[in-house]
Amino acid sequence: MNEMAPGTVAEATPVNESTNCARAPIGLLAELTHRCPLQCPYCSNPVELERANTELSTEDWQNVMRQAAELGVLQIHLSGGEPTARRDLEDIVATAAEVGLYTNLITAGVLLTKERLQKLRDLGLDHVQLSIQDVDPENANRIAAYKGGAEKKHEVAKWVRELDMPLTINAPLHRQNIDSLPRIIDYAVEVGAGRLEVAHIQYYAWALKNRAALMPTREAFMKTAQIVDEAKERLKGILVIDFVVPDYYAKYPKPCMGGWGRGIMNVTPSGRVLPCHAAESLPGLEFDNVRDRPLADIWLQGQAFQKFRGTDWMKEPCRSCPRKEIDFGGCRCQAFALTGDPANTDPACSLSPLHKEWAEVATQESHVEPPEFIYRRMGKPTTEPTRG
Ligand SMILES: C[S@@+](CC[C@H](N)C(=O)[O-])C[C@H]1O[C@@H](n2cnc3c(N)ncnc32)[C@H](O)[C@@H]1O
Ligand code: SF4
Ligand code: SF4
């Protein structure tokens, strides 16, 4: 690893076709900052957030964009935290567009103005993915602990369409907004979204702390599946609906990140390059930083990327399973969090010896009165939101 001065990003090197990696990543998730004015109890960002004074500089991020394009990445997802909290978002978008990357802004929307959105579009922003907490403003603002957030998001959604940009609405679903699903679908149609992501919460990082407050019953989940199926049929040609089922009620796990080190890389606010955004929760992994090593080297040779790439690392029952190249054994972070060994089969899989016990916990939690949300406050979890 070549040491470089802080604040600089290692120069890109061309991808060596003789290496053991079959292809370049399709997407790069750029977590521009962990700062965020909202406090969603289901937030998948790490329990320990990176501080603002460790964030990559504008030049660093621009260099990441150039290296990503050279590596063959097609899409950049500008996320966080709240990516619009970065005042240099315009410079980063402009560079990404210049080097030919498709740019997707993943945002809670509350910090945007129409003028800024227009400027971002003019600089080359291709797509906006706006998250909502609920369609009922009171409940939405309670969940996010942010006064006026729902109303502002509705305005932002309209601006996106007025500016003729494609819009996706992302609605993480849990027991405290699950009954709104039909109205969430109507909302997506009303604001002119082309796509709706109905994502049952993934219980990682901060979200795991609030699992009991968020876990829906199996019956409620089954109903959402029916509602989505009916809406998909009814809204063909109007709205595409992506439905992410909750792991706890699934038969097989999802191929987390499309398979470890296969299609997506994640760069944290301070420049650490991860195979998935929760990978820092795993023991024994070494994460390179874009300040020290070229992105292509990290993707191809980085220890963390090599560790669970492919299927050689698998244990039984995955090792001899015909689905092993379909779901890649599920999620390593969930396997570690729930079994203590990241190479174990994700307990979301019905073939895992721990699946039954694990699904039972979820069922029990979903049938008792939900506890209060634990809101994130830097350094101090609380059941009181700090604002709202
Ligand atoms: C971490 S957020 C960052 C971007 C922005 N702050 C926002 O919320 O839109 C990225 C996306 O993940 C979604 N999300 C957050 N936590 C999640 C979880 N535990 N399960 C599923 N989706 C989640 C958000 O709704 C958002 O669409
Ligand atoms: S999910 Fe909520 S708390 Fe987490 S980064 Fe997005 S808006 Fe902020
Ligand atoms: S045993 Fe492993 S590979 Fe087979 S379905 Fe379950 S998680 Fe997937």
UniProtKB/TrEMBL annotation:
Quaternary structure and interacting proteins, as annotated? Interacts with PqqD. The interaction is necessary for activity of PqqE.
This protein's species is: Candidatus Filomicrobium marinum
Swiss-Prot/TrEMBL cofactor(s): [4Fe-4S] cluster
Task: Read off the HAMAP family from this record.
Answer: PqqE
Swiss-Prot/TrEMBL keywords: 4Fe-4S, Iron, Iron-sulfur, Metal-binding, Oxidoreductase, PQQ biosynthesis, S-adenosyl-L-methionine
| A GO biological process held by the record | molybdopterin cofactor biosynthetic process
All copies of the Radical SAM core domain together span 22-242
Q: Name one GO molecular function term.
A: S-adenosyl-L-methionine binding
Pfam families reported in the protein's UniProt record? Radical_SAM, SPASM
**Which enzyme class, named as a word?**
oxidoreductase
Family according to the record: Belongs to the radical SAM superfamily. PqqE family.
Q: What is this protein called?
A: PqqA peptide cyclase
Q: Binding residues for [4Fe-4S] cluster, per the UniProt record?
A: C36, C40, C43
